[in-house]
Amino acid sequence: MLIKKAKSYGFCFGVKRAVEIAEDSKNAVTLGPLIHNPLEIKRLAQNYNVNYVDSIDKIDDNIKRVIVRTHGIPKKELEKLKNKNIEIIDATCPFVKKPQEIVEEMSKAGYDIVIFGDINHPEIKGVMSYSVHERVFVVLDVKELKNIKLKEHIATVAQTTRKINDYLKITDYLIQNYKEVRVFNTICNATFENQDAVRELAKEADIMIIIGGKNSSNTKQLYNIASEYCESYLIENENEINPEWFKNKKLCGISAGASTPEWLVEKIISKIKEVTWN
Amino acid sequence: MLIKKAKSYGFCFGVKRAVEIAEDSKNAVTLGPLIHNPLEIKRLAQNYNVNYVDSIDKIDDNIKRVIVRTHGIPKKELEKLKNKNIEIIDATCPFVKKPQEIVEEMSKAGYDIVIFGDINHPEIKGVMSYSVHERVFVVLDVKELKNIKLKEHIATVAQTTRKINDYLKITDYLIQNYKEVRVFNTICNATFENQDAVRELAKEADIMIIIGGKNSSNTKQLYNIASEYCESYLIENENEINPEWFKNKKLCGISAGASTPEWLVEKIISKIKEVTWN
C-alpha cells in the first residue's frame, strides 16, 4: 500500500521552533504548556527535564531558566520575569511578536487600536498589553465594534489564527466609518495551509488517517475536510489503527493537527506499514 | 399646491465654495469650466467677467488672476502658474486637497500608492501628481490591481465621487495580499446625500421635478430614483414645465443635479407656483 503525507501538516513554523528551543533549554520551565499535546509535553519532561508552571508565582528559586511559549505573554509579566534572577528564553512566535510590535508603535503614534480576536486568548492578552495607552479595543465582530466610538485614525491587527474573511468584515466597517485605517494583516496562513493540503490529498487518496487530539478543533477540521472526499479516520495514537480499514485500498493519505509532533506521525506510518504488509 | 425641496440637492459644498470664490474674483479666468452647467458659466461671465481658458498656455499677459477649479490641477501645472506674473486663486475642493496631501506625505514616507479612480479624470491627474516617486498606481477595479506587483507597505486613497462598496473591493484585495495597507477613505458623501434625500422625498410626494442637464449622469440618477416612487420629470429650465403634470397633485418634490445653481431652482419653483395658482 502506498502512503503519502499531505504537503503541509502538523506543527506550524512557530511551534516547531518553540519545541527546538525547549530541547535546547534543558532544566527550564515553560509558562503554561508549550503545546496542546500531552505526549509531547511528557517527552520534553522526560528527555529534557523541561516542565511547565501555571504562573510566574510558581517559579521558585530552584528554577534558573524560563521559556516564554509561542503565544507570548503580557508585557507586565515579562517585566516581572526580568525582575527575577532567571534566564528568560523567548519562544514567542515571530508572527505573534509582529502584532505586539505594531500595537506598541501605533499606540505610541497616537492611533486607536482595534484588535480582531478573542480577549481571553493568551496571544491577545499579550498583544494588547503592548499598547502604551488605554484606547485598545478587542472585538470578535462588527456588532461589538458598533458599540465603540473610535477616534478618526485607527490601526488594526488580527489574532494570527483568525480567518481573513472575518477580518475583512471588521476592516470594511472601519474604512466606511473612519478617516484613516491602518490595516496590518497579521493572520498566519499555517492553519489554512494544512487545510488546503488535506483537501488536495483526500481527493486522490482512498483512505485518510488524521492524527491529533479528538477534541482539538483544528484536527477535527482536517478530519471533516478529508471526510468530504474519502473514508477518513481521526486517531490519537497507533493503537487505534484497525487493519480492516485498509482492505482494498491503494493510497493512504496522512495528515496531522497543529499540535501533533512529527515522531508520532512517523510511529503511526510505521504501524500502518506493519498491518498492511502482504 | 405644496412644494418641498429635498433635504440635500444641487451644488455640493466644494462647488458652492468655488462659485462664491469666482464671484469674489472679478476679471479672473478659470482653468477649464468651473462647473458643468452652461447657464452658470454664462452668468459668471456676464456678471463677474469670469471666463475660462482651456490650458495654461492660453493665459496671456492681459489676465491677472486665475482660478484653480474644484478638481485641482497637477503639481507641475501649479508650478507653471506660479512662474507667471499672475494671482492664483485656489478653489480646489478641500475634499480633493486631502488626497493630494495624503499622496504627497505617504509617498515621502516610502509607501507604494494605490489610487482608486479614473486616470483620465482631472481630479485624479492632480492627486497622482503629488507623489514624490513613480510607484503610484491608478486602478478602477481589482482586475487591474492583480497585474501590479506592489511592495509590502501600501497607502491608498479614492476619487471623491466613487462608491464606497467599490473601494472596499480594492482595499479587501490589498489587505489579503500585502502586509500593511493604510486606507484613507477620501470618498465624499455629497452625491449620495442628494440621492438619499431624493428617495426620502419621492416616497411622500405625488410628483417630483428634477432639475439638471439631460445628459448629466448624476441628474439622471436622481430622476431614476424618483421615478421608482412617483411620477417624475427631468427638466433643464422653466420653459419645459407643463401645467397638466400638476393636476390632482398635492405635494410636488424638488431636487437638482450637482451642477444646478440655486437661482435656477428658485426660478423653476416660481414658475411651478405660477402655473398651479388656482
TrEMBL record, chains A, B:
EC annotation from Swiss-Prot or TrEMBL: 1.17.7.4
Note on how the cofactor is bound: Binds 1 [4Fe-4S] cluster per subunit.
Reaction equation(s) it catalyzes: isopentenyl diphosphate + 2 oxidized [2Fe-2S]-[ferredoxin] + H2O = (2E)-4-hydroxy-3-methylbut-2-enyl diphosphate + 2 reduced [2Fe-2S]-[ferredoxin] + 2 H(+); dimethylallyl diphosphate + 2 oxidized [2Fe-2S]-[ferredoxin] + H2O = (2E)-4-hydroxy-3-methylbut-2-enyl diphosphate + 2 reduced [2Fe-2S]-[ferredoxin] + 2 H(+)
Enzyme class: oxidoreductase
UniProt pathway annotation: Isoprenoid biosynthesis; isopentenyl diphosphate biosynthesis via DXP pathway; isopentenyl diphosphate from 1-deoxy-D-xylulose 5-phosphate: step 6/6; Isoprenoid biosynthesis; dimethylallyl diphosphate biosynthesis; dimethylallyl diphosphate from (2E)-4-hydroxy-3-methylbutenyl diphosphate: step 1/1
Pfam families: LYTB
Record-linked PANTHER family: 4-HYDROXY-3-METHYLBUT-2-ENYL DIPHOSPHATE REDUCTASE (PTHR30426)
Listed name of the protein: 4-hydroxy-3-methylbut-2-enyl diphosphate reductase
The organism of origin for this protein: Lebetimonas natsushimae
